[in-house]
Amino acid sequence: MDKAIKAAQAFFATKYGKALAALLLLGAIIAYAHHRGVESTSAKFTAQVQQLKQQLADAAATPAPVSPQCREEQGAEAGTAERLKQAETAKAALEKKVKDYEKQLGHRPAKAGGFVLSPADARSLQNIR
How many CA atoms lie within 13 A of 20 on its CB side? Predict the structure, then answer.
């Protein structure tokens, strides 16, 4: 063991040994400073992080209040949906009346090689509502 210590002392007495020792010491100082900086920064913000986490949890737990404007929009959407449903029902009823009238006209015999509507037929078509 004595030989190893003497060899190390001889190595560190050289120019390369001194440079290596200086680099090792510098690396240790940088690592220690970095560790202390990270540790102090995380400790400094720990209370704020906990407070923000609590605020987020509280905000997620409570439902958002519904503004009067949102209620009006929901009411308007419900009214629009009802009117749309009524319009679709009326459209379906009208289409059924037109198809029924087409069937009725289709059963009439053709006059002189063509199909011509009489004025009464035209009025009947206009009166479909």
Answer: 9
Dihedral sign for Cα atoms in the order 22, 28, 30, 36: negative
Q: How far apart are CA 43 and CA 40, in angstroms?
A: 5
Burial class of residue 106 in the structure, from the number of CB atoms within 10 Å of its CB (0-12 exposed, 13-18 middle, 19+ buried) = exposed
CA distance 99 to 110: 19
Asked whether the beta carbons of 121 and 105 are under 8 A apart, the reply is yes
Tokens (6 digits) for 93: 């009823």
Structure confidence by residue, pLDDT tens digits, 16-63: 999 999 999 999 999 998 888 777 766 667 777 778 888 888 877 777
Model confidence, pTM: 0.34
